[in-house]
Write the structure tokens for this entry.
Amino acid sequence: MSSQVEAAFARLPEYLAWHVLLSASALGLGLLISLPLAVAASRNRHIRWPVLAGASLIQTIPSLALLALFFPLLLVISAASEDLIGHGFSALGFLPALLALTLYSMLPIVRNGTTGILSVSPAIIQAAEGVGMTPRQRLFQVELPLAAPVIMAGVRTAAVWTIGAATLSTPVGQTSLGNYIFSGLQTENWVLVLFGCAASALLAMVTDQLLGLIEAGAAKRDVRRAAIGAAGILIGVIVALTPLISFGKPASYVVGAKNFSEQYILAEMIAERIEDLGGEARMKEDLGSAIAYRALASGEIDVYVDYSGTLWANVLNREDNPGREAVLEELTKELAERDGVLVLGSLGFENAYALAMRQDRAAELGIESLDDLARRSASLTMGGDLEFFARPEWTAINEAYGFDFRARRSYQPTFMFRAVTSGDVDVISAFSSDGRIAADNLVTLADPRQALPPYDAVVLIAPDRVNDARLLAALRPMIGSIPVEEMRDANYSVDRDADKLRPVEAARALTRKLGLD
Amino acid sequence: MAEPRIALARVTKTYGAHVALSEASLTVEAGEFVALVGASGSGKTTLLKTINGLIAPDAGEVRIEGEAVGALAPHILRRRIGYVFQEVGLFPHLTVAENIAITPKLLGWDKARRAARAAELLDLVALPREMGSRFPAALSGGQQQRVGVARALAAEPHIVLMDEPFGALDPLTRDALGEDYRALHERLNLATVMVTHDMTEALLLADRIVVVAQGRLIADGTPQALAASTEPEVAALLAAPRRQAERLRARLGETA
């Protein structure tokens, strides 16, 4: 327990620094865009409605979706700029997070700004004109100072929202306090989840109080109070950002990981091996499944582990199943030709999609294969991870076996296992290397029609690293050396409820066990 | 011969079908105190606002000391004309002294000169100098309007426009402030145009009274000349103060 908290604290300077940099930049940019919009909206009632409605509309988009939407958008823009001026930019990480959070911060500032300016009394406006102010002088000397308390109230709301929503930038590859929450959620490390929530809430509260001082200063025309608030914000941002001076320098290798335990463990293993050979390695965790490959192909990350079946279906858009060896062979050839990506080889185990049921339930219903399952499906409920029902594998087995489930539910993987053990659902989508299959007394169902493609865990290398001798030397010994039982154990040591290991500890244990150290 | 301070020639303003001003012509010389009287909606405030460009006429011409108003940038024009109105409109986020010195500040006067001018004007409108560092919210209605007058005079204008300036004040304050302003007007040789719906106030303060009805100037003369007018609308306007004066005399005579 205390060692977990200690480990969490050790990462705080880096996570907090990125979180503050991201929120402060988004809020600053949001102010820069929103204030002129508010002024324009207060001046011209024809644009007032569209501006306020537009800002409200953005607010109705769930923040996670807004963040995710910027990734493909930026990819397209980046490709266009590469064609046009020969320079692309990163579609992952800071930029999409910044843009989404900026948009997200706008509504309260635009709305309060417009209201604040419009609520300045007509007598004051008449006096401002009467004493000979230009429209600009009227805005800066009269309207904005008088609207300042209302505008600051909007800025406070925007700051709290932005800091909260910034935790969601982790899945698009931007480090933030959300790293605690997403990693913790995956490994069922609730201490980590709580730590992330508390850190982000504390940051939001402190910021809110300091901005509150500025607001009160503006309302009571108390310059001293406003100055204390402003100085507090400034000092806080500077102190929070200092770790970035050391963390900010680009690490020589970026190791990617998707958002589940096996990926964390393998990424830690790879990172340690790189560091053993004198390289510097940095993790980019919790990447979405679709984002990870694109990030590798574009050089955002240098190496990560993916699964042959996933690449087969999602990257090559293939639905056929020529068999394990053929898939691996063709994949290696196609990815090299198409994207210049190197498939270094299989780690030696499969992490295939499999449907799993409780042993007792399967025995009771007489289900051993997907054929048996299809016959009983009308009275059963199926649970899937968040992406399963949208994946080609689901389409493939559904077409092959003709399922007709009574209901389908999607879960975050951790809760999916809870749902099947508690009987909320009868069957779930699982991964063959998942330690929880054995631990929860589940059985995987046979796939006699071979509808599910093979899922060999393969190491992928980014195009500009395919000739990097140190990287290849670090990774080659891992190829073909991890049996599925060892991976399952390692995964379970992270996923289990009691006596949990952190991914880095599990990675070290696995390395020792396999004699790879 | 010097140009008149204010010269309106056939000024017309319409709002849709409503004619607010119809071919109004008016000349005000230095030292003249002109009251514009008439019922509400008669067009007297519209007339006043065409002088400092708060309202642009549809036809006709307004000249200030010989210069056509339309040819000047509105803010340059307004810095040369004092403006006092019923709601006062002091800036609540500025001190009394900053309020008074706002037009000098816009004109680029330096800080010392502005401070001296604010102190001078506080004396002029009979307010203690310490009041300069207070905020308007701490002042009574009458004090606020004294500051309003001071603000209008700060940049040494030759012209002051007043729109029901004392309308919201209690009778005693109103009387004192009216007389004080009249004295200032004479001392500074201003051209003052004051809109009021109160005929008694106009009679007591103004050199000339201009009666406005349905957008037309139907009478223009000294209080005495107006008293002799046979125009029914003018006579009606004068009837009320006359009757009041008689009743007052009768009542006060009884109790004496």
The first strand of chain B starts at residue 6 and ends at 15.
